[in-house]
Design brief:
The complex is a heterodimer of chains A (362) and B (501). By secondary structure, chain A is α+β, with helices and mostly antiparallel strands. In chain A, 29% of the residues lie in helices and 29% in strands. Chain B folds into two domains: 2-96, Alpha-Beta Plaits (2-Layer Sandwich); 138-243 and 277-498, Alpha-Beta Barrel (TIM Barrel), CATH 3.20.20. In chain B, 29% of the residues lie in helices and 15% in strands. The longest helix of chain B is centred in the C-terminal third of the chain and has 25 residues, at 441-465. The chains are: A alpha+beta (362), B alpha/beta (501). The interface between A and B is large, with 45 and 39 residues. Bound molecules: iron/sulfur cluster (2 copies).
């Protein structure tokens, strides 16, 4: 049975770090951090999102694709050629790891939309790319685009996160921001595409929890043209973040005020101006509220947002040292890579921690 | 003398050992069932006049009375039931259309009773409403298409007019005329206290009740009784009544005997004249016409009030709702075929329309498929009997529910289904001053507040159990529902899975 045919609740571990100066570091650190939380995963899926790793191709969309076989690769590449200029393509480098098995074909393409196709579609560039990703993932059997942003990439598989990191040679990548996920699903889907992070364009989400509002959120986002094929929370969270931030133009803090909205009793205590904004957001985007426990890390071009559900039903700790900000499900996962933190705190439920590269606009 | 073919359905059973001949029942019964025989010092009753409203039963100080089903039977026949035969006798003697009131009592499936709710275990904690905030506030109205910002980058409040409710319930339309002044006052005061809305129905708004304006929906029905600019501007929203679940396809009829005093003034028609609302609005013969009426009402109220369009749940309800969602209306109210009425032809009440559960599921799905669910909110009515029905309706896709029969029961109604006679012994569906005063609005409004507060508590418990702490996250959340005893097709229409899946 493949992910998407049934809905599988899962518990998890998440970890992430970002260097606000934009300095790039190797994937080693996040790998060590997530390994500490081994017991929070059960070897049924994990992965990483890395930002700033493709500076030489930063103007191109990096598509990471799983193929079941060479036939699916062929039809997918035909589709890509019809819609994109492919600047570069290669297998994603991996190393053999005993416990990582049943690997699909894993390819990477740096692409830019064909101007004629893009013009004809009357869509903006990012919407065009998103639409193409949906087309491949829903229409081309055996092909699955699991990463589609610029200057970033997702690496994921079935296994324990530390093994997956070594499999993808994560230590060889250098980026300014990394997130990681170890999964504890209550069932065995065993499909690589179902592992996390889940990503669309440059938005990537790792998530720990189970949102009780799932079907309300899913049915809403599907109305706006998204297709939830995996039936996972992470997928729906990613789409809603994409919808609110990219399509509706909300800021990340406004996005947080929608998905983990403050309680009415809190809103009533705000200044009239703030109150009006929050009332507005809760009214207009009531169907995009998430209830139930979650802690998420949303990676995006130039930053990282960490957010807990409004009751803080999942643990999440933030640590700081110089330009580096660390976020993880457990403090130990931060201490292992930076024992001398200048500040450690647990953000309140619904209170986003938004970290941006120095000099980036909010 | 003609033979009377009809034998009473119910029997008044009086325990003579208990009866103290206080004559309370005699005074309380507007149908004149009870009579005191001075010579024998005994009470007697005429079962044929009894409508089984339980007024005497409730007031008898010695509990000497009960009303029991008469066990007089015709020869048993699975095809020709006693009910069918009696109705036939009645029509054969009167030559008239059979009239009934309240909702369809026939044995059709109640889908709410075949849907079960979810609760959290292990993977997701349930939430205790006594310890954590549990939100039931809802907004009704269209959502803006785009976010607008001022020069400073702040979000501009471009919300179309909408309603804010403290809980997802409103009292649905019952006109002044079909129900009493005291019943209206109870509803209006309860709505105000609860932070919700009540609905004037098609009879206009009594001047005493203008003060409850922000908790009032004013209705515009095909008869346009009592409609004038002040009326339209007095409420928080305007409802165009196209149809009613109990009698889709036909209008209303309030007999001249009920058009007395204040009612005639409120309806703006002469005393004693029948108030007949035509079956269609004669200015709405198509969906474009509806759009014109929606916008004339918006124009008349300076685009300050949301417009509700209320329709009966009929076979094509999803397509009709889709048209309404594009008509400029802000809210669609769908009334299921079990919804109540003050009077309706029996055959129509019992045979026309579809269940609200199926209609609601179909409409919500259609509007989502067409990407226009944000254009409108959906209010579901037509026999919401409990907080569990509300939770199920919202999970199927409603934003809010309309409550009417349940509210009347809270006020004392015993569902005798005789509202059309105008002799309601509970002071609800009557204009007889002596009967009306039996309903004390001071007590009545508190009972309504109690009922809805209790339901709100129960809703919080149920959604908290699902791990949800805002009613908004239940809306359309059909994964929280499972069906039992339903066919594949029924599950498909409801958009839910079978229990165990
Ligand atoms: S109210 Fe009860 S006790 Fe009084 S007369 Fe009627 S039956 Fe008898
Ligand atoms: S309102 Fe009165 S007349 Fe109508 S059903 Fe209820 S008790 Fe009977």
């Amino acid at each position: 049975m493949k992910e998407g045919q049934i809905r599988i609740p899962s518990g998890c571990a998440i970890s992430g770090l970002i260097d606000k100066s934009g300095k790039r570091m190797s994937g080693e650190a996040v790998l060590r951090s997530i390994s500490v939380m081994h017991d929070r995963s059960n070897g049924l899926g994990g992965g990483f999102a890395a930002y700033g790793i493709y500076p030489e191709y930063k103007d191109f969309y990096a598509l990471h694709i799983f193929y079941d076989n060479s036939a699916s690769k062929k039809s997918c590449e035909e589709f890509l050629e019809q819609h994109f200029d492919i600047i570069n393509l290669s297998k994603i480098p991996t190393r053999k790891i005993k416990v990582i098995t049943e690997e699909p074909l894993i390819w990477r393409y740096f692409v830019t939309p064909l101007p004629t196709k893009l013009g004809g579609s009357q869509l903006d560039e990012r919407e065009f790319v998103a639409k193409c990703v949906f087309r491949v993932n829903t229409r081309i059997d055996g092909a699955y685009i699991f990463s589609s942003g610029k200057n970033m990439g997702v690496f994921k598989a079935v296994g324990y996160p530390e093994d997956i990191g070594r499999f993808y040679r994560l230590e060889e990548y250098e980026g300014y921001c990394f997130t990681a996920h170890g999964r504890y699903p209550t069932n065995t889907p065993g499909w690589w595409g179902g592992a996390h992070p889940f990503a669309l364009l440059d938005y990537s989400v790792v998530h720990n929890g189970e949102i009780s509002s799932y079907d309300a959120n899913r049915r809403t986002i599907e109305m706006y043209g998204y297709k939830c094929t995996l039936q996972t929370d992470t997928e729906v969270i990613t789409y809603i973040v994409d919808y609110l931030h990219r399509k509706k133009g909300l800021t990340f803090s406004e996005t947080a005020a929608v998905i983990a909205a403050p309680f009415w009793q809190t809103i009533e205590r705000m200044t009239p101006e703030k109150r009006e904004t929050h009332e507005y957001l809760r009214n207009v985007f009531s169907a995009q509220l998430f209830t139930g426990p979650f802690s998420i890390l949303v990676g995006f071009e130039g930053g990282l947002m960490a957010l807990n559900d409004r009751l803080k039903l999942r643990s999440m700790v933030v640590g700081e040292k110089g330009d580096l900000v660390y976020i993880a499900s457990e403090e130990a996962a931060i201490r292992i890579i930076e024992p001398n933190l200048s500040r450690v705190w647990s953000p309140m439920g619904g209170e986003p921690v938004i970290v941006r590269l120095n000099g980036d606009e909010v | 003398m003609a033979v009377n073919f009809l034998y009473p359905d119910y029997e008044v059973s009086r325990n003579d050992d208990r009866c103290i001949a206080c004559r309370v029942c005699e005074r309380q019964c507007a149908n004149e069932v009870h009579e005191f025989l001075a010579d024998t010092n005994k009470m007697v009753s005429d079962d044929a006049k009894c409508v089984n409203c339980h007024r005497c039963v409730a007031l008898c100080p010695t509990r000497a009375l009960k009303i029991v089903k008469n066990n007089n039977t015709y020869k048993e026949n699975a095809n020709w039931s006693a009910k069918t035969m009696n109705e036939l006798y009645r029509q054969a003697s009167s030559g008239g259309v059979l009239l009934s009131s309240m909702g369809n009592p026939e044995n059709y499936p109640v889908y709410f009773d075949k849907i079960l709710l979810n609760a959290s275990q292990v993977t997701n904690p349930s939430i205790d409403p006594l310890r954590e905030p549990m939100e039931t506030r809802v907004f009704l109205g269209a959502k803006p298409q785009n976010i607008e910002r001022d020069e400073a980058g702040r979000i501009v409040n471009n919300l179309p007019p909408h309603l804010t409710l403290s809980m997802p319930m409103m009292f649905s339309a019952m006109s002044y005329g079909s129900i009493s002044y005291n019943a209206h006052e109870s509803l209006a005061r309860a709505a105000e206290e609860l932070g919700i809305l009540y609905n004037t129905g098609e009879g206009g708004l009594h001047e005493d009740f203008y003060c409850y304006g922000k908790n009032t929906i004013v209705q515009v029905a095909s008869g346009r009784f009592g409609v004038h600019p002040d009326y339209l501007n007095s409420g928080a929203a305007i409802e165009i009544k196209i149809g009613q679940g109990a009698k889709p396809g036909i209008g209303g009829h309030l007999p001249g005997e009920k058009i007395v005093g204040d009612i005639s003034r409120t309806r703006m028609i002469p005393e004693g004249s029948d108030a007949i609302s035509p079956a269609p609005h004669h200015d709405i013969y198509s969906i474009e016409d509806l759009r014109q009426l929606v916008f004339s009402l918006k124009e008349a109220t300076n685009y300050q009030k949301p417009i509700i369009v209320k329709i009966a749940a009929v076979h094509n309800v999803a397509a009709i709702a889709s048209g309404i969602a594009r008509s400029g209306a802000d809210i669609i109210a769908i009334d299921g075929f079990r919804g109540g009425t003050g009077a309706a032809p029996t055959r129509i009440r019992d045979h026309v329309g579809v269940p609200i559960e199926l209609a609601l599921a179909g409409v919500d799905k259609r509007l989502r498929d067409e990407g226009i669910r944000d254009n409108v909110s959906i209010v579901a009515g037509g026999s919401i009997r409990s907080s569990a029905d509300i939770v199920k309706a919202i999970a199927l896709g409603a934003d809010c529910v309309y409550i009417a029969t349940a509210a009347l029961i809270a006020l004392g109604c015993h569902l005798c289904r005789s509202c059309h006679t105008g002799k309601c012994n509970w002071g609800i569906a009557t204009q007889v001053p002596d009967l009306v005063k039996r309903l004390n609005p001071e007590i009545g409004y508190k009972r309504l507040v109690n009922l809805l507060t209790a339901w709100q508590h129960e809703i919080k418990e149920m959604i908290g159990g699902m791990g949800i702490n805002s009613i908004e996250s239940l809306k359309g959340n059909r994964l929280m529902l499972r069906g039992v005893g339903l066919s594949e097709k029924e599950l498909e229409i409801l958009g839910i899975k079978y229990a165990g899946e």
